[in-house]
Structure prediction request, 415 residues.
Amino acid sequence: MDNEQWREFMDAAIGVPPGQVTVAAVRRRVVRRRVARAAEVTGVVVVVLAVLGATAAVRVFGTPSGPAAGRPAVPATVYVAFNPPHGKLSIFTIVPINPVTKKAGKPIHIRCSCDVAASPDGKTLYVAADNSIIPISTATNEPGRPIHIGNDRAGRIQIDPDGKTAYVTSLLTNGVTPINLTTRKPGQTIQVRSTGEIGFTPDGKTAYVLGFTEHSAIVTPINTVTNKPGKPVHVAAGDNEIAITPNGKTAYVAGGDVVTPINTATNTAGKPIQVPVRGANDMAITPNGKTLYIAISARPKGGVVIPISTATNTAGQPINVLSAEEIAITPDGKTAYVSSSEGPNHALTPISTATNTAGKPITSVGYPWIAITPDGKTLYAASGDKVTPVNTTTNKPGKPITTHYGTTWGLVITP
Prediction:
């Protein structure tokens, strides 16, 4: 790790509770999890990124599954972003890949931090770059003029469901800056007690910012009409994750060995749900909103996936897997795929959501950051300088697409 990468790592660790400054914890603050699990149209853009060799977790919260009404299907494009070589400055390379021909297009070189978000219409990527956000047109793959957010350093980017405003967290101060994506001008920074993940209710009326104090995690609701923060909700601290149900009624926050449901109508925490082990790595909710799945790597080895009924807020029987890093659920909700970092080849494990049983692990896909196309037919697993397509009908990996640009830096799907 060079000096620049170390500074990025330490910047990202700001706000992590004592004893939680791990690569896994940091990646959940820097990379916007990462994964848009089931995007809204048949054709998608996949952006693959990673964090200092750790799991990239970029999540689009509240993203509905299935095609959006009135939107035509467009050809899928895969974008792979790569960490610069050791000793180099933070000049990242983003490579577009045609998933039909499996050919890489012209690389995009850009200095960034390097969180990436995509507009809901899929026309623009927004990249965190020091104290700016850089738009990239997906039609031309050309970077546009940077949008400056002041003297702070951009952390996470999340775009509200209507695509009009991007919310950017600060790495050095406890602020969230709204950016008008029509005028491309930043608004007044919203001060909160701490910043980390951002999740939106599906109607876009409230953004929830996950942050930390010394002894607990806090969730700050922000009214996206007035951009005023509400009263923080305190929950258990730990490797915290947040996910919001498709109906927008409940936000779930994992921390330590509990999961706390938050009523979004009253912004009050409910009774914590006990889980058997600590250390949530990822969470995903089925498209019908009935089950929340939590990936937990149980050390020193192995992992479990905990299903939680959102109707009763009770945890089900743990599902044993090799380890549990990332979760992606097919748009039909029938299968949850869990990526693993255990073993020489690493693996993906398919889980039947009907029976909550694990299937045969899919090996030879490297250490995957994962995303599923909205038609549910293909899962993309990114590892190192390779992206491997996996047929979700046969669970067979295809030929890896190699780009030779370094190490992948995360994962996000755009419509």
Notes: The chain has a mean pLDDT of 77.
